[in-house]
Write a structure and sequence with these properties.
single chain; about 130 residues; mainly beta; 5-stranded antiparallel sheet; 3-stranded antiparallel sheet; 1 helix; elongated
């Protein structure tokens, strides 16, 4: 079963994320463009998890519309258990959506793919040892 994890990030510079940039997320929560430039996305102002992408997008749009957030990131995740502790967790599937407000005040969504990190054993396409 697939769930959708969303996070709304504050930011003082709404132009830090441009549509022409290829966006990826680093482990530190920085937004990194294809040119290697990075800008702090800000701190989380809202987050959640749901089994419906439409609900995640609606919650993100409400947060963006209120002006509390500069960007919203939705990731498709699946339930899992941590290998050593057997604690419940969610693992990225590799697909995500970046939402932001346009100058006209509408929210646009851009789908992107998160590359697997070298230490990410649960990444899509990786085999368990």
């Amino acid at each position: 079963m697939v769930f959708y994890s969303w996070i709304a990030l504050s930011g003082s510079n709404r132009t830090a994320v441009r549509e022409s940039d290829w966006i990826a997320l680093s482990e530190s929560g920085q937004m990194v463009s294809s040119g290697g430039r990075s800008g702090t996305a800000g701190s989380p102002v809202a987050m959640g998890i749901t089994d419906d992408r439409g609900r995640a997008m609606k919650a993100g749009e409400e947060t963006l519309g209120s002006g509390r957030a500069a960007v919203v990131i939705i990731e498709a995740v699946r339930p899992a258990m941590a290998p050593r502790t057997l604690a419940r967790c969610y693992v990225r599937t590799g697909v995500a959506w970046l939402g932001r407000c346009t100058e006209a005040g509408e929210v646009t969504w851009k789908r992107f793919f998160l590359p697997a990190g070298p230490d990410d054993q649960q990444a899509p396409g990786k085999m368990e040892p």
